[in-house]
Design a protein that fits this description.
Layout: H1 23-43, H2 45-60, H3 71-77
């Protein structure tokens, strides 16, 4: 895995021919690709715990959590169409 933060903006080398895949192959490609995201979240468990522990008292004190994202996944996450 590369550490380049822009790598999500490039064409995935293994998925350049999505329009030629069968539905079964397409679904498998999408599901398989999500494994990288799962691994990244698993790797960041400690950081995520520290972030939640830091945010909790602030939220309990009336603070707000602002969710921001970009791209199709962010649009799906908050149920708004991507721009």
């Amino acid at each position: 895995m590369t550490s380049d933060p822009r790598r999500t903006e490039a064409v995935h080398p293994g998925l350049a021919d999505l329009d030629r895949l069968s539905m079964h192959e397409l679904i498998h490609a999408f599901v398989d690709d999500q494994q990288d995201a799962v691994k990244a979240v698993q790797t960041a468990t400690g950081e995520l715990c520290r972030a939640v522990e830091a945010a909790l008292p602030r939220l309990q004190g009336g603070g707000r959590l602002v969710y921001a994202g970009a791209g199709p996944a962010a649009g799906w996450g908050c149920w708004t169409p991507p721009s």
